[in-house]
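Bench notes, afternoon.
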Amino acid sequence: MSGDSHGSIGQQMHDLAARLYPMHRAITGQGVRDTFEEIAKHIPLNVHEVPTGTPVLDWHVPHEWNLHDAFIADANTGTRLIDVADSTLHIVNYSRAVNQQMSWQELLPHLWTVPEFEDRIPYRTGYFRDTWGFCLSEIQKKSLADPSRSYHVVIDSQSSDGALSYAECQIQGQSERVVLLYTHCCHPSLANDNLSGIVVATFLAQALQSRLLKHTYRIVMAPATIGAITWLAQNESSLATIDYGLVLSLLGDAGNLTYKRSRRGSSPIDRIAERIVHDTGGSVRNFSPNGYDERQFCSPGFDLPMGCLMRTPPGEFNEYHTSADNLEFVKPKYLQHSLSSLLQIIDEIEDNIIPVNLRPQGEPRLGEYGLYKAFGEDGHTAELQSAVMWLLNQADGITDLDSIATRSGLSVARIRQALGVLCQHGLMAESTDSVPAHVLLAARHRSVNQ
């Protein structure tokens, strides 16, 4: 990204959003694949296809849905009155196939509007239901209404065995410890929700590829809810390697940044993201089991350190889930600001240390390691000994150095000095790459049951 002004990077993100905007995304189907094909022009993507019917936790991968055409026409003249070619929001996603002539009274129950905003088309889905419908503005509905008219309604859709698609860009670091960044990719013709998350994640991946990284970064794009659940089911064996995580969404509007804490509320990602967001004038919210896919990653059986980074939260701007969430609503400068703030979070993650006690069961016999003698040497004080004891007690593979320093009342510098001493004597590791599996499992078990 060096050599580009903030405005030009923001405009490049906005241009990518414009290319993705007309693609008809749903939780499955060709629109998602087309989206990944465009993103793969910018970053390396590994696209996974999970077949229909595959068990994923308490769910199954649904049938793949593809839409070829949809319209409401005057049955006498053939004139199209509502046409999905004009907006992908016009169809209720996952509508079953329809081809019939009907009266206004028969058609009316299948029409959706936003009465309080007469010129806006709503976004509606029929996932996991046998249903069909059209979305239109209240103005269009009023112009359409005619009890004497006959309507030809066509939905040329196909629901069949296929696959759910999700994509991942992995950027290898020096360590196998993972930073997980997740964004959903299933909404049609909505720019803030969530083309903003997709393009920010794409340009973040570009920026990280040129860096020497300590952590490995996994940037995942998947459909909301079922996509996150599918990813978790497919990657359950590697979840213990995740030290930090963020769900990225709603990053292009004019609101200040908002950070939603992880379920734990005190993970290293919470402390780091909170500080960066506060520095930008933004706000922090406690975890709640609704919103975006942080609720899947933070479910009790996983309890991953995943927060959510956004600007204005979902449902708190009136353009949300309507045609007003368009390319004019999302601004290049806000996309750029979101990306810059995210890169600051990454900088702090890269500088942070999450130590692990390699002898976690009871207090180790420090004299056997020559540590009592070391405490009596120049520069080794009672404060250092206290720092050693705090580290031995708190270094569980989850708690970072800054958190240990805060709880102990000792300086970060003193805690870092103690960490160096313990690492020299084989009692501590600065990363969890070579930590015995039972240590990590025990730490995870403690976290889940807190």
